[in-house]
Amino acid sequence: MYKPISNFMGNNMESTQVLKTKKMEVKVSISGNDFNDTVGKLFQCMRKEVFQEIGKPVIQMDTEEVYFDDVQKTEKTEKFLFVFMPRKKDYFTITARINVIVKYIDLE
């Protein structure tokens, strides 16, 4: 059944602004097999950390700045049965600082 906003959580919420904005810096480190996939995982991890830290419904996240503090590329040569068909594989480890502006709902 529909309840009016004025009775929600015992507060009069009709004229209260509940959209809050917070600027955050998140430091994330991640590893992967491909540079593009690793960067994608980096932003997934960043979003997860923002959701955990805010702990309230997030409406919008805007990435303001991205700094790659450390990018390491490791090349390894793999061989079938240690002799045949050598191929090179790259592994990436990226540590980044991401500045984010988060808009969320705060009912408290």
From TrEMBL:
Organism ancestry: Bacteria, Bacillati, Bacillota, Erysipelotrichia, Erysipelotrichales
Pfam family, one: DUF4312
Protein name: DUF4312 family protein
Domain of life, source organism: Bacteria
Organism: Anaerorhabdus furcosa
